[in-house]
Amino acid sequence: QVQLVESGGGVVQPGRSLRLSCAASGFTFRSYGMHWVRQAPGKGLEWVAVISYDGIKKYYADSVKGRFTISRDNSKNTLYLQMNSLRAEDTAVYYCAKEGVWYSYGNSFDYWGQGTLVTVSS
Amino acid sequence: SYVLTQPPSVSVAPGQTARITCGGNNIGSKSVHWYQQRPGQAPVLVVHDDSDRPSGIPERFSGSNSGNTAALTISRVEAGDEADYYCQVWDSSSDHVLFGGGTKLTVL
Q: What is the pLDDT of residue A104?
């Protein structure tokens, strides 16, 4: 069965960096685009970034562009999110999510991880 | 930029039908997806591509999309349907994923 397991969250001071990981299993990871989506406490879902199946195409929300970098290692079945220059407003649960259509992006997310909490606070 | 508008809340009695809307400029030209999120849990896809149901999702969940409004309809609502529901589209003009603000469904 498909499993997505995020890790790397925690408490970090403003201006510092953090790297999240998402370990994937149960499907052919290298064939699917992957996303990061976040949810601030008590708020709605906010899309963060997408990476194509081959890692070539990457797109970011305006709120994180220039500070966050999405990447993947298809040999390790792992998705990453490098977060730099963190701000208090980046505090959220971060989910990784799998595209529902292979070799594509811009479709629905058919599987989500359970999320990892990032708290940016001094 | 493209905006998706959902009502903050919808209330319905058990056994009745709930309709949750998602408004956007000419949203009928886009594929709309819907997610259910119960408290403390990750979102779950309940309808994709306007009206298709993933395997394991009850037939009580259905979707429609036309003009400026997409909708998720839940028939014969049960207590377990109480959750937040989000619509989502891909905006090809900006290469961004967009979510609606979410609708809290309350089962009376």
A: 84
The CA–CA distances, whole Å, from A1 to A12, A28, A102, B9, B23 equal: 33, 11, 17, 34, 35
Residue A103 has pLDDT above 90, yes or no: no
For residues B108 and B11, the answer to whether their CB atoms sit within 8 Å is yes
Distance CA A93, CA A116 (A): 5
CA distance A47 to A38: 6
Please give the pLDDT value at position A57: 96
SS3 labels along A34-57: EEEEEECCCCCEEEEEEECCCCCC
Q: Which residue of A59, A108, A114 is in closest CB contact with B48?
A: A108
Of A46, A61, A112, the CB nearest to B43: A112
Write down the pLDDT at residue B37.
98
Give me the pLDDT at residue A106, please: 84
Token reading at B49:
């591509």
A27 in contact with chain B, both atoms CB, cutoff 8 A: no
Take residue A85 and report the two structure tokens written for it. 């220059």
Whether residue B48 and residue A61 make contact (CB cut-off 8 A), yes or no, is no
A101 DSSP assignment: S
Asked whether B61 and B83 are in contact (CB, 8 A), the reply is: no
